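Hi team,

Filling in the usual template for the complex we talked about on Friday. All components are listed, including any nucleic acid strands or ligand strings, so the model treats them as one assembly.

SUBMITTER: L.P.
PURPOSE: interface mapping
COMPONENTS: two
RESIDUES: 654
SEQUENCES:
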Amino acid sequence: MSFQLNCPNCGKRAVSEFTFKSELKNRPAADADFSEWTDYVYFRENNMGRQIEWWHHRSGCQSWFLAERDTLNNTDHRSFWYGDLEQNSKDSDGGS
Amino acid sequence: MAKRITTHQNCELPDLGEELSFTFNGKRIKAFASDSITSALIASGSTLLSRSFKYHRPRGAYDVFGQGHESLLTVNKEPNILADRIQVQNGMVVESQNAWPSVEFDIAAANDVLVPMLPNGFYYKMFHKPKWLWPIAEHQIRKVAGLGKIDVSGKHVNRRYEKHYRFPDVCVVGGGPSGLAAAKGALDEGKQVLLIDDNPELGGHALHSILPVENCANSALNGIPENKAVQKLIEELAANPNLEVMINTSVFGLYEDNLVAAQCGADLFKIRAESVVLAPGATDRHLVFENNDRPGIITARGVEKLIMCHAVLPGEDTVVVTTHDGGFHTALLLKGAGANVVAVVDGRESGSSGEFEEQVRNLAIPIYKGLTAHAAHGKKRINRVDVGPITGGDSHQSFNCDLLVMAVGFKPQVNLLSMGRKRPEWDSQRQVLRVNDLPAGMYSTGDVHGAAGFSRLYAEGTASGKAAALNTAPPETERTADEIIMALPADIESAGSHHFICKCMDVTRAEAKASIAEGYDQVDHLNVIQAWAWDLVREKPVMKQWQGSPQLTPDLPQ
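RESULT (copied from the run log):
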C-alpha cells in the first residue's frame, strides 16, 4: 500500500503515516445481548468495494477520522470527521 | 586486439580527462578519468572479466550498459558491482568473482563438461532421498551458490544508508532523447520536473549516433548529428531552475498514487509525483546461436558507446551481424575508427537499403544478405565465426575475427511499464512487445513503443511531457514502415549444444526444452527448475519455435 490519504486536519499524506483502525460499525446498545456484542467486537464485514473506515493519523496530528475507500483499488477516497458522518453517508451507499 | 583510438573519420572523440591507474586481479591498468571500469579494461586488452554462474564459462563485456551479469565485479572488496556503470578512480582495486584460483584458469570450468551430463534441476531431485544426504549436499551446494564473496573488512561495511523524499510535479524516468523532450514539454508548462537516468551521463543512445537530425520540431537541433543534438538539448534544459536531474540512479519500482522508488548508491529516494513519464528506451536484442556467450561478442550499442564515449576500439577484425540499418551505422563507426570490418552479415533477404548501408557499400565492405551467425569459435576470446542461413541448417562460410557485433534489432525495456499490472502484448505491426494501457497519471514515450528517429522521439516526448503536466490523455504514437525493424528469428537452429538463451543463469536451449518435456512448461516452473532468468524468454522468436510448449505461445502471430 502506498496510496495517499487525506487527513481532514493535515491534508494529503502518505498512507504510511496513518493507522487503519476498523471499518465503521454501529455500536450496540449498552444492554444488548452477549452475541450482539461479540459480533461487534470480533467480526468484520471485510467488504470488497466501497466502505467507510476509521483511520488514525498516527505519525501526524493524532486525530481520528473517517475515510470512505474502495478496498479493491484504493482510488477516489474521501475523508471527513465523525461529526459529518450523517451528511456524508447520505451521499453514498457504502458504510453502515 | 582492443586499443585506444586518437582520431575518428566520422566523429569527434571526447576529452578523456586525466590519466590514472587501478588494479584488476593484481595487474596495473591504465585508464582515463572518464572511463567506466569496463571501458578501461577493454582498452587494456582484458577481455575476460568473469566466469558464468553455473558452468564457469569465460565471459567478457557484452552490453556495456550494465544490463548483464558479465560485468559484475568486486570493487574495493564490495562484491557484485556493475562495472559498466562505475567510473574508475585512482587506486581502485577491482577483482573478478566466481572463479578459483583465477579468472584465467578456473577449476570449476569442469562444470562446462560435467553439468550437461546431469539431468535438469538435478540437485532439487537427486539429493532428496535418502533423507540424511540432503544436509550434506546442501552444505556443498551453498558453497558454490551465489557470485561474489562478502568481505567485512571492506569500507562499504560502515556505509550509511539514507532515505530521501522528493515531490516533483512530473517525474521523468530515462534521460535519452524522448525523456529529455518529455522533461522539456513539462518544463514549458511551468512544472517542477525531476529527471532520472541510471547512466553516469544523460543522452541515452543518441550519445553515440552520428545520424543527422532532420525535420525536428526544435529547429536548433536540425542538421547536426544526433550526438551533438542531444548535447545541445541537455545544455538547453540545464539552465532551467525547475529541473532537477539525478544520474546514476535506478528506478526499481512504481507503486500506487505515483510513488517512484529509486536508488542512487547508498541512498533510497521515495518520489511522489503528480504524473510520471516513463522513457526507458530499448536494448539490443539477443541472438541465440552456438557459443553466443563467448568474450568478444558485444552489442552494437555497446560498441558504439565504447568508440564514441570512451575512444576505445574493442577489436581489430570485426564481423557485424545485423537485421537493420543500425548495424551498418556500427560498421561505419568501426571502419572510421580504423578497424578491419571483415563482413556485415544482414539477416534480411531483400528490401531497400538504408542510408548507412549505402555508405558501407561504398567503402567496399563485403555485405552478405539473408545470413546470420551460426557459431562462434575460440574460448577466452572469439577467433572465428560461422555464418549461415537465418533458418538454421548448415553453415555457409567462416570469417576470422576477434570482435562480433550483434545488431539484431531492439527490445523495449517494458519492465517498469508492466508494473501497473498490465501485461506486455506483442504488436505484430511494430514487431515489439508493448504495454499500451497504463494507470492514470502514468505516461510512456520513446523507443519503448518501437525504435524511431530523433525527431519523432523528440516530438512524441514533448507531447507526453505536456500531457503529463496538464494531466490529459496520453498522446498517440506512430511508427512508419521504414522505422519498423522486423523481428527476424533470433533462435538459430545451428549445430552444437551451447545455445545460451539465458546467460545470467547459464540456461541453454537444450536444457529449457528438456525441462519443458518433463512437464515444467509454465514459465514459473521453469524458473524454479532451471534457475531461469526470464528476460530472454519473452523474445517472441525464441518462444515461437518451441512447438512442444503451447502454454508459452498463446497469442503470437505466425
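MY TAKE: The interface with chain A takes residues 255-257, 259, 272 of chain B (CB under 8 Å). Residues 532-558 of chain B have pLDDT under 50 and may be disordered.

Thanks, L.
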